[in-house]
Every structure is written in C-alpha cells, then in structure tokens.
C-alpha cells in the first residue's frame, strides 16, 4: 500500500535510511506526522517484543524536504513491559526531528476500558464534506491532502469558503486513500493529518509545530477513523492543538497534543 | 526559600549536581514534577537569553530516591527565538528521567490572549479543604504534601473519606508552603503536585508516570494558583492525566498531559 512504501526503511541495527516522499509536502515542509510515522516505524524494530508506540514526543528542529533521510534509534532502557527509546531524523547532517518514546506491546495490555470521553459528534459519512472538494489553492500548497480520504463535519468547514466558525475545532472521518487499514504507527501520522485547527479561527497559513506528543492506547479496529482537533489556549503567538482519534469500534485509540506557532 | 534550596544546582557548563530532598518523597520514589523542576532549572542556563521552559517532555526510566543526582544538559539547536535542548537526570549511573525541551523568553512573546478554556470553578479559599487535614496515612506516604498549601475543592475530596466521586477530577488552590511565588520553572513541578486523579476514581496507590509533557505559556502572576487535574481515558492499565494551571490574574499559564500506569 502507498503508506507502507512511503515509510519504508532500509538498513537496520539502529541506523536506517528513508526516502521522504514529495506526496507529503504541506506549506513550507514535509508533514510532521508523516516524519513521526517514519521514525515510529524504525523505533518499532528497536526493542525486541515491543513493536508498538505507547507514548511518543517529537521536537521539530528544522523543516524537512522530500528526499533521503537518516533515522537513528537508541534504546535508553529496556526492562519490564516497556522500553524507553530515542531517535533522530536527519537530512544532510541537519536534525529535522528528535524523539523520545515509550514502546511496548499494546496487544498485551489489560482489556479494561473506563473511558469517559465521548466520540466526536460527526454526521454520517454521506453528509460530510470530502477533502476532494477542497479549493485548488489549498490542494496546491498541501499535496498531502491527496493521501487521505477525509470527510469533514460540515459545521467545521466554513473556513474553506471564508466563514470560519471561530470555535477552534475541526473534525472529520479519516482513512488513507487506498483504504490501507490503520495501525499503531500510522496513528502517529493521523494525529497531525488534518489542517491546523487555526483555520477554524480564520488564521490561515502554516502553523509550524514546536512539539507533538502522542499516546497510542490500543490497536485500532479496521475501518474509518474519527478525528477531532481542538484548541483552547491561543496566546502569546502559540497555540496548543489537542487531537483525539477514535476507531470504528468506538474506542479512543490515540490522543495527542502539540504546541505550534500561530500562522503569521 | 525552601523550593529554591531544594532545586539548587552546583557545577555548570552543562553538568550539574543536585541534592534530591527527602521532603519530596511520595509513594515509591521522589516526585516526578520536582525532578522535572530540578532539570528545568539546569536547562534554564543552557542557552543564553532563553531562560524559560516553553515545552518540556520527560520520560521516567526508574524511581529516584533522595540524595545526590547529576544533571547533564545539551543544546540540540539554538537559533531564532527558541532553543531545543535535551537533559538527563542520573543517580549512581542509573538514568531517572530523560528530557527534551524547547526554551525561550516568555517575556518576549506577543501579548495576544484568545484563550477559550475557562478557569476551574473553585469555591473561595475559605470554603475549600486544606491539605493539612489530609489523613495521617496519606501524609506519611506523601511527605511532599508538607511542601504545599493546597485547598481542595470540597466536591473532589470524597476520596479522603472513602467516597470518591467517580468523575476523575481533582482541583485545588495551590501555593508553596512558604509563599514562594510561582515562576516558569516551578510550574513544571506544579503540574505534577496534586494527588493522582485516580484517587477520585477510588483507585489508591502510586501511579507511576511513563511520560509527562508540560507547556508553559506565560510568566505566572504572583499569588495563589488554581490547578485542575482530569482524566478521560482510563484503559488498558493506563490513564492520561491532563493538568491546567491558572494564575491569580486569570491566565492559563501551564498545561500538561501525562501518561501513567493505573495504581495496582
């Protein structure tokens, strides 16, 4: 599937080569969530028996561009049920992102679920607005949109026609364009795949991420994901963006928060 | 002031010695937020002109104990208005926490505030329950409680008398016991100072943190802080704990999320 080709790694023994695809360009660089999935895929092989991201924190140092990249991983501690790992993604000697992570085996966790959060209140698929309807000026600066089949809640797409709601919320049905099923590593991309929530505040343009932390809490069930972005603290030239990813079985499978700069 | 003595560092040039105080013991180790403030204090000196934590992610590798600790800091990138840094806190060669961070100058940020989050709905101080009333069995396993003057919302202290609300929420007025005023580094401790939110779910015991990320968004105004903890996704033996810290001027000065293991 396309996503697997785009995150493919060569090498091994804690040093890998990836080819960042131009299909993931958005604004001034290569999408941060995609970079995180590339790194996350390398980390999945770093500690035996611990293939799944549980907590991953990425700090973004410079804008990545399409082309070769080197991923280096390191095991900081591997004991008990989880391992603590670090990784870097570099291009031509410049660090793009640096990562700390906890990996483990999501399939081995207890099955208790006492989630009190509620899934995004999304209209049925056929009542939502597909990303294929996005204006050409948005698609041209965001080729990554063509990687996805997204169906936006019509209440949160006013920004596309000059009428942002002002609430700082976006939510959509989500899947990869070739219906490649979600897995724990792909969720690291999904949490950064929707447009910046600042669009809904009428602030367009690129919102560079300083830091993004994702928690993956379960293997996602096959099928459509529901993704919700929201910000509640836009201040001092920055904003936090919280993301929730719910799977087709109604489980909250990933949560993330990022700190980003407001678009200029 | 007491807190300044407890986070004091000796050394310099990216390698420091600290003395972790036994006054911060809780459950099986030394409080994670206190460790983060010690590291955060060293990082404040790592990049010239960038004294303030903006985003800090800590991964907890092993339980710290009172006594000497070594903090090592490293500048990963220092350019423009922020620096990306890393740090480790070790005891006897064992890593306790490893940290990535973005530091900058909070005083130099634009003054715009468009926060839509609302402060914790806390009753007046005199109607809240002081931590000095905590049962002796709690204070004996949590000496760190004596570092704080906390006034708990009476609606969220049922756990102290065997009647947890089941909502997964805790909120309190907060200040250091000697009225030492809050600052950006002390907020790294404040986000992990209240009891685990799992107490409000009737799950007692220590809840070891796997990962904690804090965003500090402004210098806090002097005076009492309002702190709110909540969890919405307790599942698979883990829970996320979101924390908000509001200052006396009504600004949301810090947000954090941690992933922790459920108490056994």
Automatic annotation (TrEMBL), chains A, B:
Acyl-CoA thioesterase-like N-terminal HotDog domain location is 21-103
Concerning Gene3D superfamilies, the annotation shows: Acyl-CoA thioesterase, double hotdog domain (2.40.160.210)
Membrane-crossing residue ranges in chain numbering: none
Question: Coiled coil located at which positions?
Answer: none
Q: What is this protein called?
A: Thioesterase family protein
Q: Where is the Acyl-CoA thioesterase-like C-terminal domain?
A: 127-260
Write down the InterPro entries for this protein, in alphabetical order. ACOT8-like_C (IPR049450), Acyl-CoA_hotdog (IPR042171), HotDog_dom_sf (IPR029069), Sec_Metab_Biosynth-Assoc (IPR052389), TesB_ACOT8-like_N (IPR049449)
The record's annotation in PANTHER family points to: CHROMOSOME 23, WHOLE GENOME SHOTGUN SEQUENCE (PTHR38110), THIOESTERASE DOMAIN-CONTAINING PROTEIN (PTHR38110:SF1)
